[in-house]
Design goal:
This protein has 14 helices and 20 strands. The chain is an alpha/beta fold.
Length: about 525
């Protein structure tokens, strides 16, 4: 009798597994793995996005072997808030993240993050480098504002660029992360933090190739975020005389709502020195940004080469993107934190089994769509709280639209904390400032003005477009503010201050810096 019970139990378990794959959490060689490559502050100045100067052969090759989204946008144009969104598949109104240095569990403690969901389904979830928010470069080498529930284990590289941070040129002494700063570095790729990120990823791929373990490998590069540091050979690839600096007449500021103008010229943040750069200095800085992209591209190439060498490429989905875009003088602005195309738009590339090669789509998509897309591609059910939409239908038909517009939110902290929302359709960008639009609107027609230099919000010939855009943006905002089903608790945001140090500097007992290590040591 006892033997019969044991046999019956075994048969019951087998049937349960075969009838409902959601109840099976073991490794499965038929399941697809995921290589998730995230960059920091990378805009769409890439060869595959039709930029004629930037050298990015490995990213371009990834695009030619997969599906490229030319109209992909972030949900918040700053690091931490954007990352909280795409790792949970929700908008910032739902994550309650509007500031930097907020640990995700302090606002939504019950959420199931992307890596956590893979863990729940038997995958090994590994982080290398920056996925959630880091004070970059201040927190390099630490776990910073990471989430322990997302990963099985983590690796925090720390390279020569961090050790030699005191050598970096900067517009403001000992300010790097939020200030234009750059360095033509000595040494090899492998000595830099991002070079170590790639090396660690290569080692993980080697381990996975020798096991039957399914994996979600999240590779978070720190570049091209400031400081723009790369080995000198990458700087030598660019002729500084060919670096174009956009010319922006400040009269543009008088044609846009005041919160938008303040976002472009937020001198209160100590960035006033980046708005009046001499052309030669601006060219030097922009060349450094491009050199850092090419250095980053080389590291991506190292990882993909290893993926192919191990044969894991045959069963691995690759997704490549950035946490937000980046201004390089457009609208007279440098860096991020605006609601314009250069900041909201990011590269988004999927490649791997089941994804058509060489396809491009201009459908409006959002970074929160990565979560449900990866769930569908790997046959895993997404949590109910995920409000992003799967991009799989677009893989099969590049003209297919999963929504009419992509939504981005920003709060003008330097202008009475006025809230702004932007939507980007296939042709138009429309921006609303204030709860009822009381601070004004912006409209840009990309058919004639891809650089968004002419605000058409008061142009009577566009009245019907403006009226329809107002309906669309109000609907999108309303939907983004709804609490998702199954999310659990939503708590008050409580940011905290981090203290960062440049190696070699000394401080007294009152935490006052009393010695700066000189750059020539």
């Amino acid at each position: 009798m006892r033997k019969l019970i044991i046999i019956y139990t075994a048969i019951f378990c087998i049937n349960l597994i075969s009838c409902n794959s959601e109840n099976y959490d073991g490794a499965d060689s038929d399941k697809k793995n995921v290589l998730f490559i995230m960059t920091d502050d990378l805009n769409c100045d890439l060869g595959s996005y039709n930029h004629n100067l930037v050298i990015s052969p490995n990213i371009d090759n990834l695009a030619s072997n997969g599906s490229l989204f030319s109209n992909a946008h972030v949900q918040w144009p700053q690091c931490g808030q954007s990352r909280a969104s795409f790792m949970t598949g929700m908008y910032s109104d739902q994550t309650k993240h509007t500031k930097l240095n907020v640990d995700i569990r302090t606002t939504i403690p019950d959420v199931v993050t992307l890596g956590q969901r893979f863990r729940q389904r038997g995958y090994k979830s590994v982080r290398i480098g920056k996925i959630y928010h880091y004070d970059n470069p201040g927190s390099i080498g630490t776990s910073s504002a990471d989430d322990i529930h997302t990963w099985d284990y983590t690796i925090n590289p720390y390279g020569r660029d961090k050790e030699e941070e005191y050598k970096v040129k900067t517009l403001k002494t000992r300010a790097y992360g939020g200030t234009l700063s750059w360095l033509e570095a000595d040494g090899t790729d492998e000595e830099q933090t991002d070079g170590i990120v790639a090396t660690e990823a290569i080692e993980q791929l080697e381990k996975f190739s020798k096991s039957d373990q399914n994996f979600f490998l999240a590779v978070g590069f720190f570049k091209p975020h400031t400081p723009y540091v790369a080995p000198k050979k990458y700087f030598d690839m660019y002729d500084i005389s060919e670096i174009d600096i956009p010319q922006m007449n400040n009269e543009f500021l008088n044609t846009i709502p005041e919160p938008a103008a303040v976002s472009l010229r937020h001198k209160a943040d100590g960035k006033g020195n980046q708005y009046d750069l001499k052309k030669t200095e601006a060219q030097e800085i922009k060349r450094a940004y491009y050199a850092t992209i090419t250095f980053l591209d080389a590291q991506v190439g190292r990882i993909i080469k290893k993926l192919k060498k191990t044969g894991l490429d045959k069963n691995t989905i690759i997704v490549f993107s950035s946490d937000h875009g980046y201004h390089l003088g457009e609208q007279g602005h440098w860096q991020k934190q605006t609601l314009y195309e250069k900041t909201t738009r990011v590269p988004l590339i999927f490649s791997g089994p089941g994804i058509k090669k060489g396809t491009r789509s201009n459908s409006p998509v959002e970074l929160i769509d990565m979560y449900p897309t990866l769930m569908e591609l790997t046959g895993i059910k997404a949590p109910d709280h995920v409000v992003g939409k799967s991009l799989v239908p677009i893989f099969n038909d590049s003209s297919y639209k999963i929504r009419n517009s992509a939504l981005t939110r920003w709060i003008a902290t330097r202008f009475n904390n006025v809230e702004g929302y932007s939507i980007k359709t296939e042709r138009y960008r429309f921006v609303k400032w204030g709860e009822k639009g009381e601070y004004g609107y912006e409209l840009y027609d990309h058919k004639y003005d891809k650089k968004e230099n002419k605000n058409l919000a008061k142009d009577e010939s566009y009245k019907s477009i403006i009226d329809s855009m107002k309906i669309e943006i109000d609907f999108r905002i309303s939907e983004a503010r709804k609490k998702p089903k199954g999310l659990g608790r939503q708590l008050e945001e409580k940011p905290y201050k981090r203290f960062t140090y440049t190696p070699g500097d000394l401080y007294d007992v009152n935490s006052k810096r009393v010695y700066l290590k000189p750059a020539d040591e």
